[in-house]
Amino acid sequence: MSASIDIWRDRFERLRANKLFELTVIGIIVFSALLIGAKTYDETTRFQQTLLVLDVGVTIFFLMEILIRMAAERQLRDFFRKGWNVFDFLVVTASLIPMDDSEMVLLARLLRIFRVLRLVSMIPELRMLMAALFKSIPRMGYVALLMFIIFYIYAAIGSFLFSDVDEQLWGNISLAMLTLFQVATFESWATAVLYPTMEHYPYAWIFFLTFIFLNAFIFLNMMIGIVLDVMQKESVQIELESGTGEAAELHGLRDDVRELRAQLSRMETMLERREG
């Protein structure tokens, strides 16, 4: 009995690692996303029954796929040790909510939207990007805090200086911060904010240009630099785990050098003992 279980487990493991199987799952995920988008058009109401059948088919496929991945593990708890596996399990389980119940149909549709996120769990490059994003959030938080301080200072100055120009833009510090956010995103900031202000205060361009220089150039590039740094570290970690790439080669060379040093040290010790 145990041998039979091991045989089936090996089959499921080979199927899970099969590239064609992975591509099929990715294709079904994309098809599921298109299916959700198709339901938003009024023209598809006459194909409602067909779309429902396709949705059930996609749900059954995802259920079978998650069961195959669970069966491929030596122990079931090994499957749930990976965060992405837990995410996939929750998404697939949530998709089992029936669509024909009028009270649950909205919830079921919302949960089915999250099936698109399974692309992240299936594609390693996307997983690396998401991991880099989450790991960079703490470091980005300090930059965001510094940006908020600059926003607050400039908003206070702007509300004091330019409140008589336009109350809707500079009436209080909250409105001033919203105005500065518009300036930072370059959304019609020149025609809607800069030029009207310069009609009353010709040197107001100094205020805006220094603000843009700090936020759009310095802080934004700091954010990008943090994300790129974390992505580089994640890429190196993946190469080390997979044993491929320059990082893995360098790591292997370092191990070889350490081994050679250890051998030389042992040889020196042996020679010293013989001479002694």
From TrEMBL:
<keyword id="KW-0472">Membrane</keyword>
<dbReference type="GO" id="GO:0098703">
    <property type="term" value="P:calcium ion import across plasma membrane"/>
</dbReference>
<feature type="transmembrane region" description="Helical">
    <location>
        <begin position="203"/>
        <end position="228"/>
    </location>
</feature>
<keyword id="KW-0406">Ion transport</keyword>
<feature type="transmembrane region" description="Helical">
    <location>
        <begin position="20"/>
        <end position="38"/>
    </location>
</feature>
<feature type="transmembrane region" description="Helical">
    <location>
        <begin position="50"/>
        <end position="72"/>
    </location>
</feature>
<dbReference type="InterPro" id="IPR050599">
    <property type="entry name" value="VDCC_alpha-1_subunit"/>
</dbReference>
<dbReference type="InterPro" id="IPR027359">
    <property type="entry name" value="Volt_channel_dom_sf"/>
</dbReference>
<keyword id="KW-1133">Transmembrane helix</keyword>
<feature type="domain" description="Ion transport">
    <location>
        <begin position="19"/>
        <end position="234"/>
    </location>
</feature>
<keyword id="KW-0851">Voltage-gated channel</keyword>
<dbReference type="Pfam" id="PF00520">
    <property type="entry name" value="Ion_trans"/>
</dbReference>
<keyword id="KW-0812">Transmembrane</keyword>
<keyword id="KW-0325">Glycoprotein</keyword>
<dbReference type="GO" id="GO:0005891">
    <property type="term" value="C:voltage-gated calcium channel complex"/>
</dbReference>
<keyword id="KW-0813">Transport</keyword>
<keyword id="KW-0407">Ion channel</keyword>
<dbReference type="InterPro" id="IPR005821">
    <property type="entry name" value="Ion_trans_dom"/>
</dbReference>
<keyword id="KW-0106">Calcium</keyword>
<protein>
    <submittedName>
        <fullName>Cation transporter</fullName>
    </submittedName>
</protein>
<feature type="transmembrane region" description="Helical">
    <location>
        <begin position="169"/>
        <end position="191"/>
    </location>
</feature>
<feature type="transmembrane region" description="Helical">
    <location>
        <begin position="140"/>
        <end position="162"/>
    </location>
</feature>
<dbReference type="GO" id="GO:0008331">
    <property type="term" value="F:high voltage-gated calcium channel activity"/>
</dbReference>
